[in-house]
Every structure is written in structure tokens, then in C-alpha cells.
Amino acid sequence: MENTWMVIFPEILIATGGLLILLAGAFWRGRPDKLLFILALISPAAAIAAFAGLPATGLSLSGMLASGGYTRLFSCLVLSVAFITVLFSFQYGRKRGFEGEEYYGLLLFSVLGMDLVARAGHWLIFFLGLELMSLSLYILVAIRKGDTLSGEAGLKYLITGAVGTAFLTFGIGLWYAGAGSLSLITDFPSRAGAGDGQLIIAALSLILVGIGFKISMVPFHLWTPDVYQGAPAPVTAFLATGSKVAVFAFLIRLCLYMQDPLWMVVRPVLWVAAFLTLVVGTVTALSQSHLKRLLAYSSIAQMGYLIMTLLAVKLESGLFALAFYLIVYAAMDLGAFGIIASLSGEEADRDSLEEYRGLGFSRPWSSAVLSFCLLSLAGLPPTAGFVGKVALFKAVLQAGSVSLALIAVAMAVLSIYLYMKVLVSLYMRPVTGTLPAGPAGLYEQIGGGLILLFLLWSGILPSPLLSFISGIVPL
Asked: Residues 229, 293: contact at Cβ < 8 Å?
């Protein structure tokens, strides 16, 4: 029993933090904004410390939770995303009046769901974690009650999320009918090639559709630009990074333990999905004149690079490249949307590219962080995005998908134009709109500084992080 409590101790810390925030907001007199903010920071930080002390036991709780090195890496990554999101949210939430217990509590419950998804070794844990994550995000997207754009985004996300969940539930049901078990790891290799293989293929088809909705995979991506644009900027940052990392961590495990006959069926599907997601995401982003929509289509394209690398997940280099790029992707997108939050006013987010004209000189620190995140998304040196894309392309070439790697390189070159559009507005256009009122808050500067240092350090000296990843047992 003691060992069981230790295995789920990080989750207990996150849940306790969320409950304390709700109780403090309900019973504390006045407006305990600072207290709620501190609790929201302490909870993910304490959970990260708890994960660092967990033994690498592989599978726990009768195979339902994974506790190996890669699992802890992704769990700590989504917790770090939550920590930075809280930093970006303090001043932004105060301006707009949703800095209360509902926001921070739902943020922690959502990251609890993300953690369970990343750790899931059983379809039941995966489904429960995914629904906890999604239900919290539906409310967070529409957290601004008087904002019609936010409410519309929440409704669209709810409807598309429900459709994805329906596909996923049906797929899991078929999986159980074909495999006779809901265990992902312990029964997967022995059951996938049995006489019910066709049923397993049908189950995986539905499951991939459900997961495709969650990671904005083409053609299940249409909700993404509207939701990203309508949601508050810190929520968009959290949604674009934490949820994608958690679901992709599970998808990596699913592909990693897939038996070869079934993998030969799934591999062409992933090839087509990667191709469509790369091309549609990149080409559509070129015509965008609003930064949040541009970054939404950019995140779709980034998912294309990651889906492409799933073709090499059986190789050690592919596994390391996926882990490295997921870390870098989380930092890049979190920084970009976080800076949008710090530059926005009280009424609406600063979204149109015209509103960013000349801000490179009036808000040099925030503009520098945003520019570096965009350069990293473009994959230009000396950023971490350059190292990550090189690792992805190398792994895909080693897996034999030369044509897809060439297409990805072409899309990477094409994407430089769309990121440069933003830099031109920041530094090469005169100011035409209203300037942001006052400098960025202290916590926003800390969050932006942490991301800038990480992207620069990982781009110039990636060896420590790569060595750390390569030393982790892939479970």
C-alpha cells in the first residue's frame, strides 16, 4: 500500500492543490488573488519534485500507470507548461477579471488529466485522463463570460471534442472486443496478431481519428484556428502545448509497443496524415493576417513534423528526436502565446499583425522573446528549433521515408516566410495602433526569460539535454 501511494503521490499533490485553491477562493474573505497564484505555482513544482524522487519502476498499479523514464519526462514537461502558464496568467487574468479560484483550479485539474494521459498504460486511465483534461479546457477556453468570441470558441471546442471522444470511445470498445483486455502494454504484443486482428485494425482506426481531433491532425483540425483565436492567450498557450504533449506521449507509447504486422498497416496511414498535416498547416498559415490564427496553423504544421517522426519511433534516434522536439515545441509555442498575453490590452488580445507594428522598439524585451520563439519555430540557428528539426529529419531518413523528409524540408523553408512577416511588423514598420499600456509584469518577464534562456541554451549547447534524454529508459 505504501508503494502504491508513492506511485500516485505526484497526482495527489496536483489534486490537493486544485482543491485547496477552490476552497481558498470560496472561504477566504476578500480577493485572495496572490494566495491562489502561489498555490497554483507550488502544486506543479511540488509534483515535479515528487516525480524526480520516484523510482523507475516501469509499470505500476497492475500495469495501469507507467513510471519509467520517458513517462516521467513527459509528465514533468506538462507540469512545467502549467507552471509557466500560471506565470503568464497573473497580470493577464487581473486585467480581465478571471484570476479567481475557477481559473487556477481548472488549470490544475486539466494538468492532472494531462499527466494521467502521459502515464497511461491502460485504456481506462487514458480515457479518464483525457476527459478530465478536456472538460477543464472547455471551461477555460470560455472563461471570459462577457466575451462572445471566447464563448463561441468554447462551444466549438466542446462540440468537436465530443465528436472526437465518441470516435475514441467506440474504438476502445472494439479494442476490448478484439483483444479481450484494456491493457495497452502487457497484452498488446500478444493479442494484436491474434484471429481478431481485423477488429483491432478497426479499433485503431477509430482511436486515431479521436486522437487526431486532440492533436489537430488534418483533416480533423478545423476547430483549431477559431478556438486558438477566441480563447484567452494564456489558455491558448496551455491548450496548444500541454494537451498536445500529453496526447503525443501516449501516441508514442501506442506506436512503440505495436506489433510488426499491425505496424505495417498503421505506418502508411501515418505517412499520409503527416503529409497532409504538414502541407495544409504550412500553406494555410501563409495567408493569415492575425497572429493567433497564424500560430494555430503553425502548430498544426508542427504536429505534422511530429507525426512524420512517428514513422521512426521504432528506432532509437526517432524516439530521442520525438522527445527532444516535444520539449522544444512546448517552449516555443508557450513563449509565443505567452508574449501575446503580455502585450495585450484589457479588452481583447493583440492579434492583428498591424497591431504589432513597431513594438520591437517600444516593448523590446517582449518583442525579443517573441522573435526568438518564432525563429525557433522556423527552425533557424542558433535556436533549439533548428537542432530539433535536424534530429527529426535525420531520424525520418534513417527510417527510409526519404520523400516525406524532403517534403518536410520544403515546408520548413516555406514556413520561414510566415514567421518573418511577424518580425517585419515588429522591427521594420512604423507604429500605427495603440501601444501596450505599461511594461510586462514581473511574472510574465520571468516566464519569458526562462523560455528564452532554454531555447538559446538548447540551440547552442544541446548535448546535455540530448544526453539526458538518451539515458532514459523508453517506457
From this structure: yes
Decide if 475 is inside a domain. Answer: no
Rounded percentage of the chain residues whose pLDDT exceeds 90:
48
- 392 contacts 440 by C-beta, under 8 angstroms: no
Q: Which of 59-63, 400-404, 405-409 has the lowest mean pLDDT?
A: 59-63
Q: How far apart are the first and last CA of the chain?
A: 23
From the list 320, 256, 285, the residue with the least C-alpha distance to 472 is 320
- Beta-bridge partner residues of 66: 59
Q: Write out the three cell numbers for 242.
A: 500541454
Amino acid at 397: L
The candidate with the shortest Cα–Cα distance to 321, out of 333, 335, 305, is 305
Residue 416 lies in a domain: yes
- The rounded distance, in Å, linking the Cα atoms of 28 and 315 is 53
On whether the pTM is more than 0.90, the answer is yes
40-92 confidence digits (pLDDT tens): 999 999 999 988 777 666 666 776 887 777 888 899 999 999 999 999 988 88
Q: How does pLDDT run across 13-33, given as a tens digit for each residue?
A: 999 999 999 888 777 766 677
Number of domains in the chain: 1
Residue type for position 227: V
Q: Is there a contact between 332 and 371 (Cβ–Cβ < 8 Å)?
A: no
Cβ contacts of 57-64, under 8 Å, gap ≥ 24: 57/7, 58/473, 58/475, 59/121, 59/185, 59/186, 59/475, 60/3, 60/4, 60/7, 61/4, 61/7, 61/8, 63/121, 63/122, 63/183, 63/185, 63/186, 64/120, 64/121, 64/122, 64/124, 64/125, 64/183
Distance (Å, whole) CA 264 – CA 290: 41
> Is 411:278 a contact under the CB 8 Å cutoff?
yes
- Give the position of cell 529508459: 473
Beta bridge partners of 352: 290
Give me 400's grid cell: 527510409
Q: Is residue 26 part of a domain?
A: yes
59-60 and 65-66 strand pairing: antiparallel
Closest CA to 45 of 91, 105, 108: 108
- Domain extent for 287: 2-470
